[in-house]
Write a structure and sequence with these properties.
binds 5-nitro-6-ribityl-amino-2,4(1H,3H)-pyrimidinedione
Amino acid sequence: NKDFVKGVIPSSDLNGENLKVLIVHTRWNSEIVNELVKGAVETLLSNKVKPDNILLHSVPGAYELPFATKKLCKLLKPDSAISIGVLIKGSTMHFEYISEAVSHGLMNVGLELEIPVIFGLLTLLNEQQAGMTPDGHNHGIDWGQAAIEMAQITAS
Ligand SMILES: O=c1[nH]c(NC[C@H](O)[C@H](O)[C@H](O)CO)c([N+](=O)[O-])c(=O)[nH]1
């Protein structure tokens, strides 16, 4: 039906007070990325994650996300990680290849290390799709919620 709500219903018992969450984000397309990071951080804080337990690191671009997320997860041992980047088609000849490689790479990091890695790569056909318009949805919020929920699964 027309008022179908796209997106996810967050779990009701999110509690991040004992969690440490790593956020690895790109500097490519930083205007959009920074908004996504802000959405994720605010969501973590509003669900009781302590500010000192939110670890922020940046990398040049999306292709670096899997390597940096794996190295930083092994070093910092977070309860979960959010990898955030934005690929915009047309600005790269290899849009499909980078997004394919990064999505598989991030999935493997989480499975190999058994640390939940939240997939925060937006693959956009144009900037308008970033959803940063006033009535747009900030996907960073969903990723913050998922980071807590998934960490609680592994912590329980
Ligand atoms: O994060 C991005 N990296 C991009 N390329 C850089 C790539 O991720 C690596 O940083 C680079 O290839 C060096 O390894 C992009 N484009 O090329 O368009 C892009 O849109 N977004």
